[in-house]
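Class prep. Sample record?

___
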Amino acid sequence: MKGDDAQLHEQVSAALAAVPALRGLEILISVHEGVVTLSGCVRREDQKITAGQAAVQVGGTIVVANHLRQHGSSSPKPDSELAHSVARHLRRAATAARNLTARIEEGWVTLEGEAELFSMCTALEKQIRVLQGVRGVTNLVTVVPPELVNGIAEKVDTHAGGGELRTARSFGPPRESHHERQPDNLGKE
């Protein structure tokens, strides 16, 4: 295991151990290039969900492939390659998005994080949806537009007549207000 993977393995292990509902369960953790795979058996379905949520919240986790099975369940394991395919797409999208993560449970992919544009959210979902082994996608990526920093100024202008306080946003070069402009013919007869 590479250094980053070994450190992530320890952090995920500690995160799972800190959850009271998961204590006493034998959950196997494997990590490869930010893809965390959980396997083993749990007593209840909520424990499987809790383990996946705890693992995806660990910094450095890109995707969680949740192969945990409930005792007595005969559901087949999803293809681990799916997790690596999803991780590749998330890495490519990371330049235009923040904190992208995914959880995979029996072929269902849940995407989370932030993107600057709605089109980025939908494009990522479309790319993931067509991957082999994907049964469905839940897209929880939120749109957080970049801050508008260039050319925006907030001005407070006192209206000459009544002393009103107004706020204006300017999206271009400053313009004269009608109070500052002097007529060209002032003082001329």
Notes: Helices lie at 3-17, 45-56, 80-93, 118-129. Residues 148-185 have pLDDT under 50 and may be disordered. The longest strand covers residues 97-105.
